[in-house]
Amino acid sequence: MIQSSTDWHILVVEDHQDIRQLLIHVLKKAEFKVSAAANLAQANDFFNQQKTHPDIIILDLGLPDGDGSEWISHLRVWCQVPIIVLSARFAEHDKIKALDAGADDYLSKPFSTEELLARVRAQGRRLNQLHQQQAMISFGQFRFDRHKLQLWQGEQLVHLTNIEYQLLTVLTAHAGQVLTHRQLLLAVWGANFSEESHYLRIYISHLRKKIEVNPTRPVYLLTEVGVGYRFMLSG
Amino acid sequence: MAKFFSSAAFGMSAAIVVATLLFSQVLSWLSTTNIAMLYLLMVVALTAYYGKYTGVISAIIAVLVFDFFFVEPRLSFSVQDWQYLITFTVMLISALTISQLLNALRQRQEHSQRQAQLNQQLYVLATELVSALSPHDIFAICQQFMETELKLKVGFYIPNTLLATNEHFILGEFNSHEQRILNTLLHQDLNAASPFCAEQASFFPLKGQTRLRGIMRITGSHPTQHTTLETIASMVAVAIERWHYIHVSEQQTWQIKSEQLRNSILSAVAHDIRTPLTIVYGLADQLQHELTDKQHQQTISQICQHSWRLNQMVSGLLELSKLQSGYVQLKQEWIPIEELIGSALQELKPLLNQLDIKLPTGLDTLVYGDELLLQRVVSNLLDNAVKYHDGKGAIKISVDSHDNLVRLNIANTAPPLSLEQQQQMFAPFQRLQQSTNPNGMGLGLAICQQIIAAHQGKISCHCKHDNDDNQHYVVMSIELPTPPQPQVQS
């Protein structure tokens, strides 16, 4: 089932009334269905049968009635609803904790309308893609066959090492979404390497040399400072 | 003394008279040998009761009396049977030996009683010292003990370098010459320090766990044993050190408490400022999208820009105060320097549009540091380069690495700076006078300096003239110490 963007039901969980109003206003303007909760207790109500299940959750990390990251990991046990967390700029530790707990993306306060909508749409696209996954994915001049593990630049086959292929596969599977260092290390190298962040950084720089025109100013494989990486198909 | 002797003499005479009467009148049927034994018993009793001298005298008298009254011919000192001379000798030697032994025993008992009493006093002193609240109390307690119990005069000398409060504590007179000598002594090794005598005074070092804490001076004569005084000195040292450590831990507790208070105030302020800022920025940004009127759009875009910058400033202030508190924990990792430069370029993208930025090639060098903080440094330096760039040449970034040092230079064309300007640059709230761009509060470089210092690195500024393009450049460079590069298995 493919939903059009207007059908998405977004739940905003934010304790500060004015910020909640702002979020509701912006999202409604973009023609989403929006519900709001002021705390985790109210948010829990949306998972009861009486109310509609949200498609995307925007969750503030500084709620008065509990730790947002814990709430996410409880929810993740049974529910895959995309979650975007809101947190203060420079509070990277909180963001990483929430992302590792299962949040899908984050937004730093203060945020612009564009940033907010881009994040929500990226999650929405991912929701749809779950139902129509393809082996072939393309970005810029590149076509990446995830089934055969082949990367084509135009008509030219690009040589990637095994680890670079795995890294690119994981990144493109979560295109538009932030992945923490820990998540990438777990996915590509396994649990024994979850603290060896330099492996990841070095391979990312190798990969950038192969897919970016200017590796110092990347357009596809972006760094989220202190958090992880984000792959943008649009460049 | 005289009283004691008269009572001893009286007791001794009475005992001898009574014994002699008893032996001659009542027990006259006893043999002379047994009577000698009974005299011996009496001498032992007298020695036990009156002591050594009475014992010796009574032994001699007993021998004479025995000879006079009981040995034939009676009532005369002459002796018929010469064998009695042996009896007299044995009797005298036995009496003297026994009295000697008894006396030694009594002395030892007295000594141990004295020792027990002293120990009791020392114990009381120790309990009092433990409850003392300051070095002055400790001195007073010790002084009182020394004067009343040992009849000694005591002095203490603790210079201001040895305790946590940096105060000096002195009891008694120490002239400047003495103080100079003691100061040198007190800074010697703990194990080398030992008690010594000088100018009719004895000096005992107060030895703490890790170092000397002061000196105790004893004047006056008293047969008190040296070891007792050493014991007192070590008790005082323990008490002083205890006070010192209590003080140290109190200081630390206060420091931690005030740091916590400061952080909680800061984060409360930050939260309170950021929340309305988020709303102002968000609403303005939303309006920007909704308004079609060109003039209003410009106004709104200014509101956006300024509220964004306000947010940056609040963040900068917070960051600086956190860094200055010295409680920032670095999350050190290996980071390709290319990534640091790359994310700084990404962050400043809107500012860099038309600028020519010259990047070096082959930026594979890894640096060891906290990604977030180092990225802040590179961004701030780049931001500065853009701000103070005079619009002519390029912004040049270069990296060079030596054995265990990585240097990053960011240069922008600008008129040369004086040496004074180059040094002042890193103080907070400093902005260059000739700056035409008043953006920012001048916190950027102060933050950079704090971050680099936390990484044990160096940040500096110099000017140079590039002959290739004939331009003056201001170069900011950071140097980071780098441990051996990690191995990565493929």
Describe the structure.
The complex is a heterodimer of chains A (235) and B (490). Chain A is α/β, with parallel strands linked by helices. Chain A contains 8 helices and 12 strands. In chain A, the strands form 3 sheets. A 5-stranded parallel sheet of chain A has the order 2-1-3-4-5, sandwiched between helices. Chain A has a 4-stranded antiparallel sheet with strand order 6-7-8-9, with no helix packed on it. The two termini of chain A are 28 Å apart. With 490 residues, chain B is an alpha+beta fold. Chain B has 13 helices and 12 strands. The longest helix of chain B has 65 residues. The chains are: A alpha/beta (235), B alpha+beta (490). At the A-B interface, α1 and α8 of A face α7, α8, β6, α9 and α11 of B.
Strand content of chain A: 15-25%
**Class from helix and strand fractions of chain A:** alpha/beta
Structural class by sheet pairing and helices of chain B: alpha+beta
User: Strand sequence of the main sheet of chain A, in spatial order?
Assistant: 2-1-3-4-5
End-to-end separation of chain A in angstroms reads: 28 Å
Oligomeric form of this entry?
heterodimer
Helicity level of chain A: 25-40%
**Distance N to C terminus of chain B:** 102 Å
